[in-house]
Amino acid sequence: WEDAALLVPPDDESALRSALAKLINDADLRATLAHAAHQRALLFSAERMVDRYRALYRHLLQNSTLTAVTS
Description:
By secondary structure, the chain is mainly alpha-helical. Helix content is 65%, strand content 0%. It contains three helices and no strands.
């Protein structure tokens, strides 16, 4: 996630303040992080997730000792 966000330790107000100041003062950084976050979000689109589940189910069926029941 580091390419798509500024990470700060929990309960570290100083680090959070510093990260927010960096974002406020650096338009290029904001744009870079926004683009990276968008690209990362595309990895979890509904279409991609359906494709990945379908591939997983196919893999499980192909490698299963159970036979599929058809009606």
